[in-house]
Amino acid sequence: MSYNWKRVVVKVGSALISPNKIGCSSHYLLSIAQFIVKCRAMGTQVVLVSSGSVAAGAHQFSDHEKSEIAVKKAMAAAGQTEMIATWDRLFDFPSAQILLTHADLRDRERYISIRETIFSLLEHEILPIINENDTVTTDKLKVGDNDNLSAMVAAAADADALIICSDVDGLYDKNPNEHDDAKLLSWVDNIDQSIYDMAGGAVAGGVGTGGMRTKIEAAEKAVSHGIDTFIVNGFTETTFNLLLDGKNPGTHFQAHDKPMKENIHWMRHTSNAQGEVIVESDFAASLESEAEQLTSSEIIDVKGEFSVGDTILVRKDDGTKLVKARSNYSSCLLNFIAKQDNEEFAQEFEKKTGPIISNKHIANLEKE
Question: Which pTM does this prediction carry?
Answer without folding.
Answer: 0.84
